[in-house]
Specification:
With 298 residues, this protein is α/β, with parallel strands linked by helices. The chain has helices at residues 119-126, 162-175, 232-236, 240-247, 262-274, 277-289; strands spanning 5-7, 23-33, 43-50, 62-68, 77-83, 89-90, 96-103, 106-108, 115-117, 132-139, 152-158, 183-189, 214-220, 252-258, 293-297. The protein is globular and about 50 Å long.
C-alpha cells in the first residue's frame, strides 16, 4: 500500500514530511504474483534483503521506496510508502528481510482521459531477483498491539491494505503470550480474485481459523464489472448489534487500512448502525480521541 495518511498516534499527512536522508540499499530476493492470472489486478509480493544488519523494524511500520523519477518530474526520486506485509526475518546469511505487497497501478488523467502507469508501483513490479533499490525509513507505527491482552481488535481493510494486518495478526498469535482478546478481520475487494492472502492459492489467514478468538469476514462488490462499491453493509451490518456493543467497550480498537474512499463508505454503514450520521460522528470522534479508531488510508 502507498502514501498512507495515518489518523491516530502519528498523523503524518504529506510525503514531503518524511525524512529520507537515511537510506538503505535492498536487494530483491523474490517477486511473486499473488493474484490469479484471471484477475485484472496484478499484485506482487516482493521479498527484500536489507544491507543494514541492524535494520530496526517493528511490526506495523512502513518503508519508503525511492523510485527513479521520470524526467518531467523535476526530481531525482519519486517517494512512495509501503506497509511491510510480514514479520521481519533474516536470510540464510544473516541480513534482515522484509516483505512488500505491491499492486501495479495506472492513473487516469481527469482532463485528457489518458492513462499513465504509476511510477513506484510499476518500478517495483518490474524488479527481478538480484535487482537493487533504495529504501528509507522505517516510519510510523499506526497499528499497535494494545497493552490489554483481552482487548478486542476490529480490523477493516481493502486491497493491499491487508498487508499491515497480515503482519499484525501473525505477530499476535505467534509472539504475544497470553492474548485472549477477539480479532475480527473484515476484508473488502471488488471480487474474490482480488482478495490477497485469503484465496485458494494463498490463504495465509487460514492458519488462524482454529483460534477461538479469530474471525474473518469477506466483503465483495455485488457486481464488480459494473463498478458497484464493496458491500460493507452485508459484512458489517449483519453483525451490527455485536459491533456497536464492542465499540462501547473501552478495550475495543478499530484499525482501518486501504483506499481513502473507504472512509465515507464505512461512515455510512456505521451511521446506519448508530441511528444517524450525527450520532456516529460523535461516537467516532470519541474513539479517535482515545486512539481507539486509527486509519491508514491512501
Amino acid at each position: 500500500m502507498t502514501e498512507p495518511t495515518a489518523l491516530g498516534n502519528e498523523a503524518v499527512h504529506h510525503l514531503h514530511d518524511y525524512n529520507i536522508d537515511v537510506r538503505h540499499t535492498a536487494t530483491v530476493v523474490s517477486s511473486e504474483r499473488i493474484t490469479p492470472t484471471g484477475s485484472d489486478a496484478e499484485v506482487r509480493e516482493l521479498v527484500l534483503e536489507i544491507d543494514l544488519p541492524d535494520f530496526d523494524y517493528r511490526v506495523g511500520q512502513s518503508v519508503g521506496v525511492l523510485a527513479p523519477a521520470p524526467p518531467d518530474f523535476g526530481a531525482e526520486h519519486h517517494l512512495r510508502l509501503y506497509s511491510v506485509a510480514d514479520l521481519p526475518e533474516r536470510g540464510p546469511t544473516g541480513p534482515p528481510r522484509i516483505v512488500l505487497c505491491v499492486r501495479r497501478c495506472t492513473y487516469t488523467d481527469s482532463y485528457s482521459g489518458e492513462e499513465y502507469p504509476g511510477v513506484a508501483s510499476n518500478y517495483l513490479c518490474d524488479l527481478a531477483p538480484g535487482d537493487t533499490l533504495t529504501l528509507t525509513g522505517p516510519y510510523g507505527l499506526p497499528f499497535a498491539v494494545p497493552d490489554e491482552l483481552d482487548a478486542n481488535l476490529v480490523l477493516i481493510g481493502t486491497g493491499t491494505g491487508i498487508a499491515p494486518f497480515r503482519a499484525l495478526v501473525k505477530h499476535i498469535y505467534r509472539d504475544v503470550d497470553g492474548w485472549t482478546g477477539r480479532v475480527l478481520l473484515f476484508y473488502g475487494a471488488k471480487s474474490g480474485l482480488e482478495l490477497l492472502y485469503m484465496n485458494d492459492a494463498r490463504d495465509d489467514f487460514s492458519q488462524y481459523y482454529d483460534e477461538e478468538t479469530f474471525e474473518a469476514f469477506r466483503a465483495l462488490s455485488p457486481r464488480p464489472h459494473w463498478g458497484d462499491p464493496i458491500a460493507w453493509d452485508d459484512a458489517i451490518a449483519e453483525r451490527g448489534s455485536e459491533l456497536l456493543e464492542m465499540l462501547g467497550q473501552p478495550k475495543t480498537y478499530v484499525y482501518v487500512a486501504g483506499l481513502e474512499k473507504m472512509r465515507p463508505e464505512l461512515d455510512a454503514v456505521f451511521a446506519g448502525l448508530a441511528g444517524s450520521a450525527a450520532k456516529w460522528q460523535r461516537r467516532k470522534a470519541e474513539l479517535m480521541a482515545g486512539e481507539r479508531w486509527v486509519e491508514l488510508l491512501y
